[in-house]
Write the structure tokens for this entry.
Amino acid sequence: MIGPFEDVVIRTGCRVLIPFIQLYGLYVIAHGADSPGGGFQGGVILGASFILLSLAYDGDEARKRVSEKRNVILCSVGLLIYSGIGAICLALGGNYLNYSRLHHLLPVDPVYARALGIFGIEVGVGITVMAVMLSIFFDLASEHEDQGERTSFGMDR
Amino acid sequence: MTTSPYPILIILVPLMTSFLIPLVGWWRRSLCYPLILAALTVSAFSSLIILQMVMEQGTIHYHLGNWDPPWGIEYVFDHLNAFVAVIVSLTSLLIGISSKSLVERSFSKKAAFFYCLFLLQATGLLGIVVTGDAFNLYVFLEIASLAGYTLIAIGDDGAPFASFNYMLYGTVGACFYLLGVGYLYIVTGSLNMADLAKLLPPLYQSKPVLIAFAFFIVGVAIKMALFPLHVWLPDAYTYAPSAVSALIAPLTTKVGVYVAIRIMYTIFTPSFVKEFSSATTLLSWVSIFAILFGCIWALAQTDLKRMFAYVLVAEIGYLALGIGLANRNGLTGTVLHIMNDTMMMASLFLVAGAVVTKTGFRRIDQWSGLHKKMPLTMAVFVVTALSVIGIPPMCGFFSKWYLLLGAINARQWVAAAVLLGSSLVNAILFFRVIEVIYFRRPAEFPNQDRVQHEGFEEAPWSLLIPMLLFAAGIVSLGLLSGKIVSGIIQFAIPEGL
Amino acid sequence: MKIKEKGLPLEWIVSKYNYWIYIFLMMIGFYAMIGKKNLVKKVIGMNIFQTSIILYFISIGSKKGSTIPIAEHAAGGPIQAIQYINPVPHVLMLTAIVVMVSTFGVAMALLIMIYRRYQTIEEDEILRLRR
């Protein structure tokens, strides 16, 4: 459904813009506490940068950079960062997601450890949201070779 | 506030394992099945320990992040909670054991993703049961629902469309629940269930609270498939693959009933329910129609999974009747029936899954003479059928007994008559199938090929053991009903009823 | 004190305009989910339905003459709650937006499966093909 789109203006414009979009996405993830932003918003912006790449160039251009296997790994790793930070706090003696316990690991006081804990979680959420946005886009937009065959694979026989 | 880790392990272990499984599945696919079994075992073990702790100490609170409620989210375990959590986690474990052969048969290449969704569904259901925060319940409700939509859609031909219909209905139900939470937040400023129960009583006459109650009840009725909002259920559970319908069918609707009990009797205390008895009267009448129509529609079906789905609609009618009667016996019947119906529906759908996977026979007349080839599976079916009809000492009898007592206590004679009449209709329903299975020979029907019946044997062990355990549970937990009621359930019913 | 105009208490409509707007949007979405035959239109209706609820939650958090809930934005001195809009509904709606997007993703995947199976996306034709 997405074919190659040959236009010099669009390609050059996107080639210039996309790094800045990604930088802005990282900024939004990191500044969730001080301005509107956070993990989900930044992750969507990062995902949108890849989608822009695949819209401006060939449909597979972004796929070459983030293959399906890498996508699923990114998804899982982001979520494992989230629950892993919570589980580390659990292992260090507090309740789940009690970031103040992280002061045993990091050289900061318990109050600041809470802020760092939230930042770590937002990074995890951002990675996962980027991976999921890419996954949704590519599953909907790609052409499948087995189109027309019977595609429901639950053979309940 | 408790510091033991079990209240969080019951959720955390399946959740983190579901994130790990796609990674593990790409590395080595055979490790997925032991991994989910390990996760569900830890979860079941934690729930049993929590039940023991609750029976010794009373209600347990676990504060996430060490923030005190109402500013933070907390997990609350009282007797009702712990009981339903044990049921959900043990059932998930047994269905997880049984999923091995069904997954290998149908979609072995994508087994990792199937198991990931399976664990997410189990996590969502457990999260609904353990949380003590109204908005956190919405989050877990949507996790369980989304995993459910996806799992149902990977069945045979009609499955994507059935799942699409289920998704439309389910989204409306969850959004109504969210609106209820929003209206309560406007008038109280709190989202914690215990805090709402303290803040709401002076406000019972105000309009937002009444509207919130209405939104809650309709939203939860959609999720638990109460007549007339049950329309998504037969299609979704018929076309779903066997492993999925055995997991989702027993649990999703029962957890919906649990949410209804929480809303009506914990957030809105029993004094509200007594004051606005028109709501409970409406609920009783709707559930009477659910029982009637569920049984009648089940009689008309020839496809067995569809018949079981309509029996499930009738069972949900029983559960809602107990809630609507609003007295101690009725609610005891409902809570006991949550346990009984989970076991009965799980074993029914496992039997159907076993037969369909082995032979592909879905219609009643195709099951003739099947007891010769699959004797144990059919024995499990007979035990479950007797329990659905309500014959002692199976567990179904005891919960119907409490419901009948509750109906008589509340002077609802129509409900009592419908309860007894539906047992009769269930007897007709199941004895018709049992007659076909046991007393017809395969050679009697000319359109059935003798060759088809040769060469299959009993269901594989991974399917057989959970079925036998459910059947044993139906009998033994029926005999232990008195102890369960006096030990756990009578503390689960709130005061004032 | 109500200003009655043609029998309608005007204050009842004007002061609660956010509730009227969200109910109007919700009913548009609900009608689309029920009344339209094209499955994509039903999904869009579901989206509008969920968006209206998000709008409702955001609207109940606003206060007159207040600023966004970031500590540096108001006048100096101790933090007074009256100067900031209520951040709790915004936080709840972040989760609800994520749920909305996930539901939309699942709906799109289901629609693609349905289209590949039946070669149509109209509900009445699908029901006819299923019989």
Notes: Residues 28 and 35 of chain A are 8 Å apart (CA to CA). Chain A touches chain B through 25 residues (CB under 8 Å). Chain A has one domain: 8-141.
